[in-house]
Design goal:
The protein is an alpha/beta fold. It has a single domain (6-42, 71-173), classed as 3-Layer(aba) Sandwich (Rossmann fold), CATH 3.40.50. 47% of the residues lie in helices and 20% in strands. The chain has helices spanning 15-31, 43-57, 70-88, 106-117, 131-146, 161-164, and strands at residues 6-10, 34-41, 97-103, 121-126, 151-156, 171-173. Strands 3-2-1-4-5-6 form a six-stranded mixed sheet, sandwiched between helices. Helix 5 (131-146) links the parallel strand 4 and strand 5. The longest helix has 19 residues, at 70-88. It is globular. The termini are close together.
């Protein structure tokens, strides 16, 4: 078996991605691998950010202001990613964690980072979902996984009933 030198974990700031990050950190500690934490943001977040702030402050939106500049959005998301990792990872030990924030389609950006960084393993957390939406989402997930040129580890959430029933357990798709 090839040694794992770089592990990629996509982050969307959810509980599921926190579980995936914790699992990836423990793997990186055991294999002495470098961990790359990736957050992919969408352009729609730049458009809705100011509307969200105005709503919180209670100001009416008479004229829709222009969207937040993309460089500012990326800086704020990078800070959010830093804080998220600090909150989730209490003791990283000797694990080197690099943070990346990018803008675009999540599946395409993950594939791009895997190729650019020469990632050996991708740790994906499987979101909590009822069974039927889980089945439809699983088809999309499997199509995305099939495009990756490296091994993929699917980490189900700890309280997911499908994980404990044996329908979905920790699994790895090796290339």
């Amino acid at each position: 078996m090839n040694a794992v030198r770089k592990i990629l974990v996509p982050i969307d700031f959810s509980e599921d991605s926190a579980d995936g990050l914790s699992y990836a950190v423990s793997l990186a500690q055991k294999t002495q691998a470098e961990l790359v934490a990736l957050h992919v943001t969408q352009k729609q977040e730049a458009d809705s950010f100011l509307n969200f702030l105005a709503m919180i402050e209670g100001y009416p939106m008479l004229r829709a202001p222009g969207p937040i500049p993309l460089d500012r959005l990326l800086r704020e998301k990078a800070l959010d990613l830093y804080r998220f990792i600090e909150k989730v990872v209490r003791n990283a030990g000797q694990v080197k964690i690099r943070r990346k924030v990018t803008l675009g389609n999540q599946a395409e950006k993950i594939l791009g980072v895997v190729e650019e960084e020469r990632i050996d393993l991708v740790v994906l957390s499987v979101p909590r979902a009822p069974f039927f939406p889980y089945l439809t989402a699983r088809g999309r997930l499997l199509r995305r996984i099939s495009r990756l040129p490296c091994a993929v580890l699917l980490k189900p959430s700890p309280d997911d009933p499908w994980a404990t029933s044996g329908i979905l357990g920790p699994s790895i798709f090796a290339r």
